[in-house]
User: Fold these one by one.
Assistant:
Number 1:
Amino acid sequence: MPHLVPRIIRSSGALGARIEGLDRSQANTPDTAALLDQALAEHLLVVIPGVPMTPDETRDLARAFGEPRVQLLRRKRVGTVPEVSTMVSTLMRDGTTDKTAYRAEDWHTDDSYFEIPAKATLLHGIEIPSRGGATWFCNMHSVYDALPEATRGRIEGKRAIHGYDTPRARNRPAPRTPQEIAETPDVEHPLVRTHPVTGRKGLYLNPNWLDRIVGLPRAESDALLDELTDEARKPRHHYGQVWSVGDVVVWDNRATMHRVVNDYPVGEPRIMHRVLIQGERPV
Ligand SMILES: [Fe+2]
């Protein structure tokens, strides 16, 4: 029996599309993978509903979008499938959560502290609280397009320093092992990225990890980064994902930021499996 061509249903928010009618075990066949990867570039986020999968199945689905890569923080890796990490963001009774999850509450893009940041991130809902815990996404093409002409002129061709830690961060990171520190030196990226598939320009921001703009005095750099971040915080650029168990959500780190809202009930497990997809050097 020929399998159905998946339908791509655009969300009503600033980005995102839902993929319906897809047999997820067939996602990584050439035609379907090309369709999914193109939908990711155009919509910046795709939601693929279904039931919970094994780590092997999750990795295989992720291959539709590129090459999965192993995760930096060893303690998060799922035993037998190092490309799949377990992200626990359950809220504890004392009001805290896993430090990484707490840090994820502010807008960020995954991995910009690497020279070659992940192209995309796949999250798969394993256990989801009964309410709350939406993940919000920001369309960085529309943020760039919304900037005043003069501001776009000021940032054209500028580069910025990203680090795993910066005094500008609202939430500082958890301690890393010496090996993890050695693997995360500061890196420089363009402030304006051109999407390699669509050719669209987008702001490449990461408020908790972006330290300064190269060539500007600290105060001027801070003021400009604050101005750019303020635009990105406007709801008109956002889409909110309300999770169901089994959902797969893949987003394009080349042109989005995201944040989680920690408003879900204390003690209810919130567990995701994550796969990072190998990217290319930002240009
Ligand atoms: Fe993240």
Number 2:
Amino acid sequence: MNESQLNRYSRQLLLPNFDIEGQLNLSSKRALIVGVGGLGNIAATYLAGAGVGTLTLLDDDCIEESNLPRQVLFNESNVGESKAKAAKDLLNAKASDVTINAVESKLNEHNAEALVSEVDVVLDCTDNFKTRKLLHRACYKAKVPLVSGAAIRWEGQLITFRYDTDASPCYECLYPELSDQALSCNENGIMGPVVGAMGVMQSLDAVKLLSGKGEVAHGRLKIFDGFAGSWREMTLTQDPECALCALEKS
Ligand SMILES: [Zn+2]
């Protein structure tokens, strides 16, 4: 680590249970962020700030004016630009040590496995069940930990799957069927700070996983009610009928 890096990361390095080892681990690791919307904006900013080695940002959308209240990395001048590309440029300006790749594409059957197998952690910052399911299956298969976040209206959800160490329960134990009535922010609304809080929590789990410091539990579902200001937590249990993790076990 050079002089400037020692200075830049000094506040993290001061933490006795993080230290230089945590920082060096972080700087040698790669993270994939799927979706550069409200969750991905925040998570990517904190991961770049913390000094993760490589960040890959995947999104095929362009920035709209109605994104600006939540997607706080973007400026008014970015409206109309690609989210992945604009985020890469803005993060490069904040954290030139971090290698940032912008992939202007949707996650699909053809690219999911390759993208996931190249990284040490995946952040699910998507906004639809179809992509989530595809992403979770790819992480499950590649044994890559997955940090999932979601937010709608005043409510947020977080769950991390340590597919690197635990094969079950999995995401499909939680959501066995693809919901056709997937909630979308476009129709249901969203409170900006709620999605921001979820993105921050995702980045914290990712920092702990990549640095090897701190505890990250498998399959703990955390639900945040932003209107009431309260959290609920529950441990996911395996669905014995799960199409993914139950069948593979038998
Ligand atoms: Zn399962």
